[in-house]
Amino acid sequence: MSPTPPDSGPMPRPSLGWVFRSPSRAVAFGLGSGLLRPAPGTWGTALGWLLWVAVVSRLPDAGIATVLLFSFAYGCWACQRVGRELGRADDSAMVWDEIVAFWLVLWLMPEEPAVQALAFVVFRFFDIVKPPPIRYFDTKLKNGLGVMWDDILAAAYSLLVMAILVRLEIL
What we know:
Elements: H1 16-19, H2 23-28, H3 40-54, H4 61-86, H5 96-107, H6 113-129, H7 134-140, H8 144-167
Helix pairs in contact: 3-5, 4-5, 4-8, 5-6, 5-8, 6-8, 7-8
């Protein structure tokens, strides 16, 4: 699939081949996980968890912070670029935002699988429901930063809920 000119409307659903023709597409689409249906955001978050366990969590804290900052910045650029190609600023198949935001949550969670699974559910809840101000940014920021930022806010809500559960000695 080649990109459509801006005045010809959005292009049809991308293929896996189209996604892997460019690094920015591969990243924005979460290495293709965003093409999975139903619930591409959940699939992207699951890939984020897998990448966390296999790679990111093995880094020292300074390395994780660097990966998070670089991944957020590159994600803003990649999602902006790919959204423009698609003619949809925040296509549901672009899941890099879920991946990076969930890495932030996992970084601040204990390594216990049950705690991480609860954090997964809590994060997906906030990403789907989009309570204020998440919904505000999701609707007002129609660019790469907007794609990434609303998920960072969902991560912040998730971290707050998890901290409350720890404080109440539920976890």
